[in-house]
Amino acid sequence: MEIVIRESHQSAVNLTADIIANALRKRPDVVLGLATGRTMEALYAELARRHREEGLDFSKATTFNLDEYIGLPPEDPNSYRYYMKTHLFDRVNINPDRTHLPDGMAKNIEAECALYEQRIKSAGGIDLQLLGIGRSGHIGFNEPLSALFSRTRPKALAPWTIQQNAPLFPDPSLMPRRAITMGVGTILEAGRCLMLATGDEKAEVVAKSAEGPMTAMLSATALQLHPQCTVIVDEEAGARLTNREYYDWVFENEPEWEPYR
Ligand code: F6R
To answer: Would you call 246 helix, strand, or coil by DSSP?
Structure first.
């Protein structure tokens, strides 16, 4: 794992966008794993800007989102399909047929989960998986005690996740209690994992995930197993990291980061 601490929210977003843009330039038919949530809004705005102003090309890319609420149709403004359409898909030149999210309305949820895994496999696997982190340490909706080898499956949302996301619903009581999420094992199979965390409310969980012992109680700790995982934080989200000087040293010395120093 590498941890990169940027001086501001926007520079953390920009560096994350740079890595995604480089992946798209290197391999236009890259398979991207995508996340939703408040953190990603600024990132998708930046990617949309680069498409508009710099011609960043999404036309051959394929995407798989981490998760979707069970019981929300794609046209529901709180569904993750709707979120992706408004924040990214409608703002870049991606082919909608190559964008994938689990179907939260599927009659047979178990079969939908198996099919989603199959689709990822048929696409050749995920090259670059973007991740946010919940205050409880979840990645995707892998709530505490999610098996570190888990696959795409339906998952009951934890009370604190419901508390975190319910204010986004016009009537908080309408927030679904379950979601389909890629498993921790599914995420760990991506070629590269890229986590973006910003703001002081993430400081504690970022420190525990990167520096704490690995535990199913905090699914983000499983990223310590991944051979190529980059965690990008702003000063606020990085504030509780104890080995900060070491992470800065790596950043100063790894050739990959030279253009950003
Ligand atoms: C959603 C997802 C979640 C979020 C996490 C952080 O697709 O993967 O793990 O990344 O809940 O959400 P925000 O950014 O709203 O704090």
So the answer is: helix
